[in-house]
Structures are given as C-alpha cells and as structure tokens.
Structure to design on (85 residues):
C-alpha cells in the first residue's frame, strides 16, 4: 500500500493523471532479476523481500539480517532499473 500511495503522489495509479499504473509486479521483477541476472544467494533476495522462513528449524538458527549484502544488492538493483543515476 505504501508503494501505491507513493505512486499516487507522483500522479500514477488508478485514475492518475500520468497513467493507470499500479505497483503490482515490482516484487516479482526484483525476484526474477536476482535469480536470473545476479549471483546473489536466494536467502539474500528472500530476506530483502521480507519473506518468512517456512522451515522452522532453519528459522530458529537464523540469527543475522544479511544487511550489508542486502544493501549492496539493493544498490545494484537501483542501478539496474535506473542506469542514469
């Protein structure tokens, strides 16, 4: 919902003056990019998407947040979607 509100502020979204675009697809696009274009581990991508670890044993032992790896990955994603920056 936050992304939709942000897009509405820019003039996009349902009945937006710049177009009827909605944020659906951003998350799958990111996940496809990490799996097909990069060599980032699956765990890093899943943690960036805030997906829960379904395996209860693995979840119990997971202590870190992979922050530095996620930070690097997200910067690379930003560069990928906007190469002019």
């Amino acid at each position: 919902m936050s992304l939709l509100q942000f897009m509405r502020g820019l003039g996009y979204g349902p009945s937006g003056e710049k177009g009827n675009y909605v944020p659906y697809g951003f998350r799958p696009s990111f996940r496809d990019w990490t799996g097909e274009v990069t060599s980032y581990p699956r765990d890093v991508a899943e943690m960036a998407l805030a997906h829960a670890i379904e395996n209860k044993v693995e979840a119990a032992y997971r202590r870190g947040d992979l922050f530095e790896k996620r930070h690097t990955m997200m910067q690379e994603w930003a560069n990928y979607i906007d190469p002019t920056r």
Observations:
- The first helix runs from residue 2 to 9.
